Amino acid sequence: MTVNVMFSAPPRLWPVYKPLLENYLDEMGIDVDLKTGFSPDVVDYVVYAPSGLRDFTPFTRLKAVLSLWAGVESIADNTTLTVPLARMVDHGLTQGMTEWVVGHVLRYHLGIDAHIHGLKGEWRQDVPPLASERAVTILGLGALGQAAAVALAALGFRVTGWSRSARDVPGVTCLHGGDGLKTALNSAEIVVLLLPSTPATENTLNAETLALLPRGARIINPGRGPLIDDTALLAALDSGHVGHATLDVFRTEPLPASHPYWTHPNVTVTPHIASETRPVTAAKVICENIRRGEAGEPFLHLVDRGLGY
Ligand SMILES: NC(=O)c1ccc[n+]([C@@H]2O[C@H](COP(=O)([O-])OP(=O)(O)OC[C@H]3O[C@@H](n4cnc5c(N)ncnc54)[C@H](OP(=O)(O)O)[C@@H]3O)[C@@H](O)[C@H]2O)c1
């Protein structure tokens, strides 16, 4: 029987994903009708990225929604969705994030800015410490946080990770819960946020938790904007308590032209480019979940709708 798959994502993605999805599903021997529009009552799967679809009520035959994005905050709380929601865990996305995080950690660790901006004729030989003398904390030990933590630990950094439940990552000191966060921030010279945006993670870094950091700590946020209380971070940057922040994600995107982050001397803004789902690998993940759905097997990467990630 033909499986009806509706692609509901920004239109620019359709010509990229259509041949990949068709090809992989054909290889799996799944007879599929893949389109951007169907009568909702005949759709079996929705391949989803935020683009306007909000009401799933008319999708009476739907078996699952398969997200192209890792972050699902725009759909996890949608009460019209009553079937499984799977998020994206994609090798290309993970690799891209690891490279971005390692690059920005090394920028801080090696003090690269001092030489890019120039020593102004002063022969100042500040040799950077070794990675083994640098404490990096990663908030979030999921698919992305774990990969970044392992890569940094392999370079020799003293890596601490923090998650909601207990985790075990080789070479990484793993902490969880409220007291775990305090310990994780207390000694962190560099903090990387790779948490999802949920009601429980909003303002994880706020005036109180920022105060736990040693003076001059640096912050790297490729997670989501709402993880940080912006007012508290700006105050901590102004006072010098936080030495610098590299921010890839924001509460409002694109970041408004008038936002103080754009002009703050101790903030680097990157425009939500830390990583992205790579179609060649991500299409395989989507097709594997369709295969599983048709075979009656459990879906990969299911979202816990109660937790929101
Ligand atoms: N900037 C970009 O380009 C970009 C690209 C892709 C993704 N992202 C962001 O990166 C986020 C993380 O992705 P992922 O694939 O690593 O997610 P994930 O696999 O779901 O991992 C999330 C991690 O956060 C932890 N966590 C969740 N709620 C928590 C809480 N209340 N307290 C403490 N820890 C909590 C989880 O703890 P447990 O381990 O106990 O479950 C888990 O370790 C995404 O949600 C998205 O927002 C950004």
How does the SSE layout of this entry go?
Elements: E1 3-8, H1 14-27, E2 32-35, E3 45-48, E4 64-67, E5 85-86, H2 91-110, H3 112-117, E6 135-139, H4 143-154, E7 158-163, E8 173-176, H5 177-186, E9 190-193, H6 207-210, E10 217-221, H7 230-239, E11 242-247, H8 260-263, E12 267-269, H9 279-295
Helix pairs in contact: 1-9, 2-4
How would you summarize what this structure contains?
With 309 residues, this protein is an alpha/beta fold.
For this entry, give a set of tags.
9 helices, Rossmann fold, seven-stranded parallel sheet, binds NADP nicotinamide-adenine-dinucleotide phosphate, elongated, oxidoreductase activity, acting on the CH-OH group of donors, NAD or NADP as acceptor, alpha/beta, five-stranded parallel sheet, 309 residues
Question: Would you mind describing this structure in some detail?
Answer:
There is one protein chain. The protein is α/β, with parallel strands linked by helices and 309 residues long. It folds into two domains: 3-90 and 277-295, Rossmann fold (3-Layer(aba) Sandwich); 93-269, 3-Layer(aba) Sandwich (Rossmann fold). It contains nine helices and twelve strands. The strands form two sheets. A seven-stranded parallel β-sheet has the order 8-7-6-9-10-11-12, sandwiched between helices. The chain has a five-stranded parallel β-sheet with strand order 2-1-3-4-5, with helices on one face. The radius of gyration is 21 Å and the shape is elongated. NADP nicotinamide-adenine-dinucleotide phosphate binds next to helix 2 and helix 4.
